[in-house]
Amino acid sequence: MLPADNSSLVKATVKVPLDAYMMDFVFSEREDGGIFDNNYGMDYHLPVFGGVAKEPPMHVVHIAVEMAPIAKVGGLGDVVTSLSRAVQDLNHNVDIIFPKYDCLNFSNVKDFQYNRSYHWGGTEIKVWFGKVEGLPVYFLEPHNGLFRTGCIYGCRNDGERFGFFCHAALEFLLQGGFHPDIIHCHDWSSAPVAWLFKDYYMHYGLSKARVVFTIHNLEFGAQNIGKAMAYTDKATTVSPMYSKEVAGNPMIAPHLYKFHGIINGIDHDLWDPYNDKFIPISYTSENVVEGKRMAKEALQQRLGLKKSDLPLVGIITRLTHQKGILLIKHAIWRTLERNGQVVLLGSAPDPRIQNDFVNLANQLHSSHADRARLCLTYDEPLSHLIYAGADFILVPSIFEPCGLTQLIAMRYGSIPVVRETGGLYDTVFDVDHGKERAEAKGLEPNGFSFDGADSAGVDYALNRAISAWYDTRDWFDSLRKRVMEQDWSWNRPALDYMELYHAARK
């Protein structure tokens, strides 16, 4: 390697065979060792142009127990669908293997038909096939009734149900003559795929495949996650910051050499203020001020709030301790003190927390009926209207592996107000003290953030946000335009996953 252009850069000339379509580089200080750079175990993976060979498409199979919009509980379901679509758009082949729950939303399954049957573990398993959001999905229906329970999670034997499904999915690949390049499994529920594959199926005939495992939330199923980490070829989690936050966990620490943080994207077709049937007018960054004004008026009218130009804080969340419920309550009162309006949409799995918020909703209805509304339920159309009509979306999570709320907010020109943790830290750059961090990512600041998990932290971010709305409206409107033009789609993350798949296959 020779010095280039009197700078610190070096250049090298490499002879490339005509039938090569890709080259991998690792840089080393000396021929016999020294410091080397292998891009964190991924190598520098560069396409070759002008040769006679084209890269063959990769075949990726996801084995998962959630998928939006047919059976979604949390962010895992969004990722399975959106990542698969993005990889398919890069001209690779993607299949999804999925349980045939009796509570599936079949209105979103196209061309649903019986495919075949096979036997495993003394049970007949029927296979159905259909397309979901343009993706091929194989639905497994075992005759033992494990998925005729009326729900996705929440049975006494969830571990047994999903363990059976993982085994059945690998058996389906084997008996069906599939030879995928990558088998991608997710969280504790399909983690058994990793060790079942390595202990059995790779010796039976699925020898070509490599296993990739993604942790969406480390809070659940630690034992399964730890075991999958030991067996998988590459592991990911859903943001670089969360990967650092969990690096010391005993399940993860021994495996850091194969562990990578890749931020989730959002589905730009699903979340698109230009093509959204749930909001009054379509808008882009060019007419964001008018679009959001109309949406705010529609939101105020729908919820019976005062029709007036006040700063509106939206909160869309599951009401759990992870999501910062004490900080949410504090922010509601702080917003009202600043003469703002506040709309919360969300419900609590814990009846005590739900009841607590019902009481708060009643209290606010008697004291601030024209400026506060708590909708303690799940309502997809209303969530779209809040994203469009709010000035700010508050996400004060105690921990947040990735978070999609702040990304959707920006897509709709709502300014995120977030706590600096996990994926919130990786995607929101404070307008006052996040400029350098944003520049390092090739971005401009896009929100308001705070560090501590206390009321003073919330006040620090929320007061600056509301003051900016009152005092510097032109600047605030230009910030709305800016956040709408940032790309938080799956375009970049899909390329990062393809790099990971290539590295796993070596």
Gyration radius, in Å: 25 Å
The biggest beta sheet, please?
9 strands, mixed
User: What ranges have pLDDT less than 50 throughout 5 or more consecutive residues?
Assistant: none
Widest beta sheet: strand line-up? 9-10-11-8-7-12-13-14-15
The total beta strand count reads 21
Report the structural category. Answer: alpha/beta
Mean of pLDDT: 95
Strand content: 15-25%
Shape: globular
State the end-to-end CA separation. Answer: 25 Å
Proportion of helical residues? 25-40%
The helix count comes to: 16
Question: How would you describe what is shown here?
Answer:
With 506 residues, the chain is an alpha/beta fold. 37% of the residues lie in helices and 21% in strands. It contains 16 helices and 21 strands. A nine-stranded mixed β-sheet has the order 9-10-11-8-7-12-13-14-15, sandwiched between helices. Helix 2 (158-175) runs parallel beside helix 4 and helix 8 packs parallel to helix 14. The longest helix is centred in the first third of the chain and has 18 residues, at 158-175. The mean pLDDT is 95. It is an enzyme of class 2 (transferase). Residues 59-221 form the Starch synthase catalytic domain. It catalyses: [(1->4)-alpha-D-glucosyl](n) + ADP-alpha-D-glucose = [(1->4)-alpha-D-glucosyl](n+1) + ADP + H(+). Its main location: plastid. GO terms for molecular function: alpha-1,4-glucan glucosyltransferase (ADP-glucose donor) activity; alpha-1,4-glucan glucosyltransferase (UDP-glucose donor) activity.
